[in-house]
Amino acid sequence: MDALDSEPEPFRYDGEVAPGETRHIRYEVGETYLGDPVEIPVTIINGHHGGPTVFLTAAIHGDELNGVKVVQEVADRYDPADVHGTLVCLHVTNVPAYHAQQRYIPIYDQDLNRSFPGKARSNTAERMANRIYRTFISQCDYGIDFHTSTRNRTTMYHVRADLEDPEVTRLARAFGANVLLYGGGDGGSLRSTATADGIPTITVEMGRAQRLQPALIEKAVAGTESVLAEYDLLPDLEPTEPSWVTETAADSTKQWLRADTGGLVEMQWGPYPLVHEGETICTVSDHFKTEEHVVTAPFTGLIVGSLENPVALPGHPLCHLLKIDAETRDEIEAEIDAGEFDGYRVWNQDFSSDD
Fold it and tell me: Which of 65, 99, 183, 220 has the fewest CB neighbours in a 10 Å radius?
């Protein structure tokens, strides 16, 4: 039976969301020291019509906020009458870390994104992961997990996915990002666990922690809609295609450039993340400015991740550089010349209160 012709069914958790219903719930995944419930906010939109079930997750790392806004906007945008299938929107997946505005679950610094599918009788992270995975993720057909870079860094808007899996590749391409980075995902991550269980899942990386960046959020909402169009949850729409795409393979050249000495870091690339072989990316100098180390690009590529904290120790990552071919370079340069490449300028537009 074609997805567009399938019969709608209730989405069941501890309760039930009937076809044609939107429900906002707070679902208990643990408890505090005082015995109060730890509840995650979830929106379930069960369409009038049958079709796939897609999950969206944000704030698995509690200080990564761009995705929280993306999920909020998506959950607010669609009515069950429009949807052929079901949307499962986990607005804030790691509530304890979100409350503390830090990456990991507080006190024990447990990484929820290394704890899936979890265990019912284990540590805090694995118990939470087990409740989330068993109740929501395991019922889905596809998934999008939203992240940002960690604190003190920023990342280019891109998708990470197991591009050796044809179904995951279809999902990644449907999102419409320019850069698709190959990777199976770390053990215990939501993406790798769900994909291994037959639920193709991608990770969307976008910008900086602890802030909202409207330009990136808008792109990610549009990317999500493109995915929903691809899988006929929104059958009246067509998926979007970017003007250029770089897809990496397992043997693609990606390199973290690291500081060889400690000191002050001055980034000199930009405003666009395209750098040519031999160009200066940054300098690292001591406080007397008697020693200065220039870091240059070993090849032409895109800076997909960059340090923002202007101090470094030996070994600290300075930037993540992805090699690109001449054709992609020419397409990017043409967009820059035409004023159509959004690049690094928009990444720095945000609603943070600490700038």
Answer: 99
Name the residue type at position 325: D
Alpha helices in the chain, H assignment, sequence order: 66-77, 95-100, 124-135, 166-175, 190-196, 214-230, 326-338, 343-347
DSSP string, 9-60: --EESSSEE-TTEEEEEEEEEEE-TTSPEEEEEEEEEE-SEEEEEEEEE--S
For the stretch 108-167, pLDDT in tens is 899 999 999 999 999 999 999 999 999 999 999 999 999 999 988 999 999 999 999 999
Do the bridges between strand 11-12 and strand 16-17 make them parallel or antiparallel, or are there none, so unpaired? antiparallel
Distance CA 311, CA 129 (A): 35
3-state helix/strand/coil string of 167-212: HHHHHHHHHCCCEEEECCCCCCCHHHHHHHCCCCEEEEEEECCCCC
* 234: its two tokens: 């929104």
**304 with 155: CB under 8 angstroms?**
yes
Vertex 242: Cα angle to 269 and 172 (nearest 5): 95
Q: Is 94 exposed, middle or buried (0-12, 13-18, 19+ CB in 10 A)?
A: buried
The model's pTM is 0.93
Alpha-carbon span 134 to 48, nearest angstrom: 25
Alpha carbon 94 to chain centroid, angstroms: 15
Whole-Å CA distances, 59 to 12, 254, 265, 269 = 23, 26, 29, 30
